[in-house]
Amino acid sequence: MTFSIEPWTEKTVVVHVGKALDFRNAANFKASCQDQVRDGIRNFVLDFSETGILDSTGLGSIFSLYRQVSPLEGQVVFASVSRPVQVVVQLTRTYKVFRQFPSLEAARETLQ
To answer: Hey, which of 2, 36, 89, 111 would disulfide with 94, CB 3.0 to 4.6 Å?
Structure first.
C-alpha cells in the first residue's frame, strides 16, 4: 500500500496518495476510502505532493469516492498537486469537478 490516511477532524481525513495511484493499488485505495465513509468520514483531502503516476484506474477510484460522498454533503479535494498529476487533471478536465488547493494548509482552512 503506497498511500496512508491521516485523520484531520471528526469528518475529514487526508489521504497521502504516495508515489502512484494506478491499476496496481486503485482497488485498495477505493476499499480503504469506503471503510472511512462507513466510519462517518465525509471529506477527503487527497495529497498529491509525492505522486508521479495517476492513471485512468486511479482516477476512476477517485470519482467512485466522489459519487459516494457527494449525496452525503461530503467533498473530495486535491492538495499539493504534482506536475504529473496536474497534466492528467488538465487533460481529463478533472479540475471542473474537484477543487484544488496549493497546500494541505490551504485545504484545511477551507474545510474547517
So the answer is: 89
